[in-house]
């Protein structure tokens, strides 16, 4: 064996791996990479939704806090506006000044234009709501509420801080305001006030529930009592009228923000459920698309009977139906073309045979050298037509076996015997070339002897057509695969033409097809090789010959031929 025999690893690398079962033109692109990108996109989308949800929760928490402030402010503002509205306009300023010091709250009357309130704020005030705004340039909060029964008189209360005395003073003021009414009108005034506020308030008689003896003593003495309920983190304010009835404001609970951990857990749970649902749906779609991809790969590889299994109620049913309809149309077109090709080829044989018989008769009757020379050229042309017909029928038979397996008869063959027979057959036809076979001693493969010999003969004939002086057949194998390499020292095959060259009737530029007078095939030899290799579950690739510098065709076949559903 020559010292420069290529290694098995280098052959494996140049052929793209020894496990491929189809020629390069028929290798489908896998959709799994696309689905991985889709799952990554979905994951990133869910993470985006998660953080948007967290931010939205913080915004909702701010809204809840603002609503809580307005709810707390509704009771004192309703009381203060009722008290101010009950004062004559001439004495309102004096009243506000007097109670500013007593309550520790800055009070003023104004209107919406002076306060430069927006449209939505004016609408809220018109409904009787309380506005709570952080004071601009000052410490504290400003509360706004329209006086009852007056269109554009707005009470402004500026709280710089909240002390323990302020709620006590306000409850005491509430009691005083209610006591100004007769007993029979007191209840109505209380209910009217309660309808304007958002805090719980109540009026009753007897002993208020939940108060201790000391608290009851203070209540009977006319003090405002604060009752703290530790279990509920709330407090209530009690005040008693002179007649024994009492009022209660509360219970009031402090504002509690939504815990960030709780928000994250809820969002995480929701996203997990949503992500699981999306994953299950996408997984189902992926399985169906994978089946469609496999069917498409089989159809592309030559199994024109491959169809998508359709089930009622499945996703992508319309896509499967569209594929099956397309496959039926493609199969019908190919079948009609193959039938036409076979019919025309068969019909050509009879007139070609008659023409050849007539030429032989004319040749026997004529002694003129010029006529004999012309007849010899015509006979060569007829021989070319006959070979073309034979190749067309062979390719049609290989390409048209769509209703089952090609009738192969695989047996155990010694590859070196096949290669030697091919070289012995072609050597006399190309005396100007040196044809040699190396390697392959005791190398066996399970294949159809007739078709394997035809494939190797086509490759060697193609190499002889384009070689300058040498054609080299190299044989090698491993535990799974057998490699047959046919090399020449010609011009080689351009990289951009290496896939197209296996298509029927494909011919590349003049550097390889017409560099010699009268040389050039029909473009079916390599197409036949590709079909034979495909039916044997092998691979045919093209490279540059490492030693001779021309073209190198590597035919890779599995050692054991197995019938698979893909080719049934």
From TrEMBL:
Residues 283-335 form the HAMP domain. Signal peptide: none annotated. It is found in: Cell membrane. The chain crosses the membrane at residues 38-60, 258-282. The keyword Cell inner membrane does not apply. It is a multi-pass membrane protein. Residues 343-561 form the Histidine kinase domain. GO terms for cellular component: plasma membrane. Its main location: membrane. Its EC number is 2.7.13.3. GO terms for molecular function: ATP binding; phosphorelay sensor kinase activity. SUPFAM superfamilies: ATPase domain of HSP90 chaperone/DNA topoisomerase II/histidine kinase (SSF55874), Homodimeric domain of signal transducing histidine kinase (SSF47384). Coiled coil: none annotated. Residues 1-25 are annotated as: Disordered. It comes from the Bacteria. Keywords: ATP-binding, Cell membrane, Kinase, Membrane, Nucleotide-binding, Phosphoprotein, Transferase, Transmembrane, Transmembrane helix. InterPro entries: 2C_sensor_his_kinase, HAMP_dom, HATPase_C_sf, HATPase_dom, His_kinase_dom, HisK_dim/P_dom, HisK_dim/P_sf, Sig_transdc_His_kin-like_C. It catalyses: ATP + protein L-histidine = ADP + protein N-phospho-L-histidine. This is histidine kinase. It comes from Kushneria indalinina DSM 14324.
